[in-house]
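Exam revision sheet. Question 4 asks you to relate a sequence to its structure. Input first:
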Amino acid sequence: MNPSKFQASTSGKIVRLPQGCWAFLPAPLPPALALSPALVSALSAADRALGELRGLGGALANPHLLIRPLARREAVLSSRIEGTRASLDDLLAYEAAQLSTLEPASDVREVYNYVRALEYGLERINALPVSLRLIRELHARLMEGARGETWTPGDFRRSQNWIGPAGSTLETAPYVPPPVDDMLAALGDLEHFIHAPSDLPPLIRLGLIHYQFESIHPFLDGNGRVGRLLMALLLSAWQLLPQPLLYLSAYFESNRRAYYDLLLAVSQRAAWEEWLLYFLQGVEQQSLDAVDRVSRLQALRAQYQARFQIRRASTRLLGAVDLLFARPVLTARQVEAALEINFPAAQRLIDQFVQAGLLREITGGKRNRIYRADEILTIIQDQ
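Answer key, structure tokens:
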């Protein structure tokens, strides 16, 4: 790390490591931050868009039908930022096959672990505040059985790490996080900031927290994914959304170079406004994107229900329609379990959906067949 690039920054300080090279120690939050007209305008736009999503989320009759596939899209995109190649189809097929078809240390397993960590965290915050303990628990689930399993899952690092392109060393990496003792103190300060009363707008606080966590980089692997999980949990814990419908990984993934450059710019030259403008634009864009996707999924669900209600469909069949939205890639066994019916009845429901064009068989086998709801997944995956 080149110390000359960090010496003008007020967002932290450089410290010399025992190896003779340098690391960056971020200053405790909050920074001295002036809300410029541009920042106020961006905050207002983000708040409006988030408010629209909040209203839509509060009006959902069966929010779990839509939350489940959107959370899986987030898992795929957040993991893709870290270099995985698994698609949403891969993940859903993996789950439909009851997790038995792939090697443990695979891209799909890493994405699936993200889903597990997210669902665990959203449930856990009902009993445990967002804290260092919860962050470690998230990390443990994220790394379990995956390629990062050797990197002390659930434990903050006990050695120095660095951030840079492949082949970087401690001396050549563009960014080196704080050494372990300073890291632990910085994490304590971050936990205090998360819970301390603040006059800062919540979305500004969220942007500050995301930068701070990434700059501390407390794990040997998985920091980016944990940092993005933390945002989703705080949106729920702070009751900014009634349902977990906003995820920023799609925005970060499509603007990946700017994402990394602006995080580094805060450390190097205290470019808080540039980072926050980028972050708030992401909140606005992804809130409106979620409103659009949820609205389209609701309209498609109503269309499907109307098609079968005309035929005087049974309550069971309409329940199966809802199941398609929660599990747009599924098997007859999953229909059997979800609707508490026998296997032949479940297969008959699936056959009706295939005939109606709602499902398509994608495995080509006579046994253990998997089916895909193309129209639903088009809305979820649409860029």
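Marking note for examiners. The domain at 3-26+63-291 is CATH 1.10.3290.10 (Fic-like fold).
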